[in-house]
Here is the input.
Amino acid sequence: MTLAAAVTSAFGFSGTFEDFCRSDAGIRQLTVIEINPAGNLSPFLGLLPKYELHSFPQLDMRRMHFADASIDLIIHSDTLEHVPGSKVALEESRRVLKPGGHLFYTVPIVVGRLTRTRRALPPSYHGTPGVNREDCIVQTEYGADFWCEIFEAGFHGVTLTSLIFPASVAIHAIKT
Here is the structure.
């Protein structure tokens, strides 16, 4: 819900996310890449004519195969924390976005401390309990400074959206 609110707000749309994807002429013209399904948003994103769904880690977010400045909108939810070198992945998103392109994403946030790497710590996994798939291993635990990395990756215009803070925060960055 938070990602949907961030996207519709960024485009000045006041209806539902489904209506936005079905009827907004602006979003229907954009090249949209989703990395891993963003829950209930994916079926609606799938209505867009220039939409593609990709899966991490098959799509290496640090070295995407898209041409420079070729994508209008990238969206992913609770994926970045699994990417080794997450700042590089954000820099890569910036590379493939067109000028004025949008990046929307969420990361789980550990309240009460700063972001830390899981390197040299026991493995931590997200996903189905007892199923420790390598693509579910947590590389970065985001904390109160979760918003800093997007600026370090070269983005300047960044907006945070929260419907229930701190349970959900969506980050929206625009490539200038």
About this structure: DSSP finds six helices and eight strands in the chain.
